[in-house]
Structure formats: C-alpha cells, structure tokens
Design goal:
The chain has 331 residues and is α/β, with parallel strands linked by helices. The protein folds into two domains: 243 residues, Spore Coat Polysaccharide Biosynthesis Protein SpsA, Chain A, CATH 3.90.550.10; 68 residues. It contains nine helices and nine strands. Helix 8 runs antiparallel to helix 9. The N terminus is likely disordered.
Length: 331
Amino acid sequence: MSTSFETQTISNHAETAKYDVSIFIPVYNEEENIELLDSKIQEAMAGQEINYEVIYVDDGSRDRSYEILKNIAQDRSNIKVIKFRRNFGQTAAMSAGIDAASGKVLIPMDSDLQNDPSDIPQLLKKINEGYDVVSGWRKNRKDTFIDRKLPSIIANKLISWLSGVSLHDYGCTLKAYRAEVLKDIRLYGELHRFIPICASWVGAKVTEMPVKHHERQFGESKYGIDRTFKVVLDLILMKFLTDYITKPIYAFGSIAFISMLLSITSFLAAVVLKISTGIQLDHTPLVLLGTMFFTVSIQIFMMGILADLVMRTYYESQDKRTYAVEEAINI
C-alpha cells in the first residue's frame, strides 16, 4: 500500500533495528537494469539466512523506473520504494535511503549493475570482524580511462592527502556501514563519498576490500569529468565543517589576525621608510596596503561573528531534509 506525502519525515533507523541488513539503492532512469538487479540481490542473499530489506530511491526518473519498482514491491514487504518529486541527486537519494533504513548494517549500491550484489556477503563478513565501515575498492575497474579512471585516480589521491584517511576508491558506492555510524550524518553536495572519512575522524574502524566491477550494459552514465572539481570543493567544505562547524570564529579569527599583522607591518614599514629616507607617505603604497589589510581584518572578524550566529541557528532550529518525497511504498 502506497502513502502519498510531501515532506514527511522518515523515521530514523537507529531507533529500532527491524532488519539485519538494509540495502539502499538510488535509481535514476535505469528501467533496463532494475529487474535484473533485483534478481541478483535475491540470489546473493538467498543462502545467507539474513533478514534484509531493499530500499529503492527513485531520484526523479523520467522513464519507467518507478512503475517497475512498484511492481517489484507489490507483494514483498521487504522491498521499499521512495519516489522523489524531481531529481535531487545521488547524495540526497542516499540520504533518503539512510533515513528509511531500519537495519543494523546499511549497504548502499548503484543501480546500473556495475556493482555486484554477490559481494554483499563478503562485506558483511568484514563487518563481523569488528569493522564499522567496509569500503569497496573497484580494483579492476571496467570504465574508460580518460573520462572516468583518470579523474578518479586524481580525486582519490587528493582526498586521501587532504583527509589523512587512505582509501583507494572513495567513488565506489558499494560499502557497508554499521547503522550507528550513519546516525547523525547529514549529507549535502557530493558528501556521500566522504562518509568513511567522517566515520574515521570520530574513531570508527574503517577498512576496504576489493569488489567486482562490471561494464555498464544498459543505459548511460550520469557522471562526467566535471564531477572531480565538485568533489574537491566538497572535500574542502567538509574539512572546514569538521574542524570549525561549532567554532567558525576560530577560522575567521585566525585569518583576521593574520590580516591585522600584515596591516601593522605595512604601517611600521611606511614609518621606517619615512624616517630613514624622508620619503612622503603618499609616495609609497605601504599606507594604502596597511589600510586595506586593516579593513579586511575587521570584515573577516565580523564575518566570523555572523558565522557563529548562523551555526547556533543551525543547531537550534528545526531539522531540515535535503529532499522532498512524493510517494513511498512499504515505509
């Protein structure tokens, strides 16, 4: 039975774990892949004796994806479907999947059949070894080099360097998380790929394992080389949020302090130059430079105060979601 609602809040999986495993899958124009993917998941989980659910999030598909998902979920209570009003992007779709999940272990994966559901039991074995996050590594990735592999290599190296968390493949969607690791995480932009970093920074045990990767057989890829630039910007933002989200005045204040030092240095250099050479102050740019740095320092300091006020509003205000749900099945 489907329930229509506009911005209904989906209960958090951390409250009660109804399933051992929750598999959640963003779907966008994948009508040719859905039924085959569903059968492969059933096949992979058949001999596991694990109580599991599958959550499909239709991210505003324009083809028959949602109709196919409705048919799949019709007589199976462990298949859940969420339909977005429009395309909000993969991160929002994954966020919806996390919110709707009620399992002890959460496993995201792609809907294009490039991830292999047969790897799920191996991910769960790693979780049972005591890890909180197991990240898939597409060691033998079946993608073109210039527009897919090369940007991924560059991005992975850069992310590992900036974050201090060394993984080979941040872009692989197939991962396994203990539910409590995702409890308080809110995802924006392309931040879903940085969940292992967030988890590591708060003390979670993170590992990775090689997983299978297949060439896309049906449909078209939704990602291009421009995604690397967006990922780098999101990483810088996440680093700032992690270090300064509760104390932004420290970040802005440090920059303001440096600017004030440059201002004082410029003024002192102008005075020394005046005394030693007798040059008129209006003949040197040092005074203008000092004035500029002084003004900038005051502006940045005030921005820090505003950022602190915004932070307090953020934490004290009503919880907001990054998506709007049109319809849900079995939720």
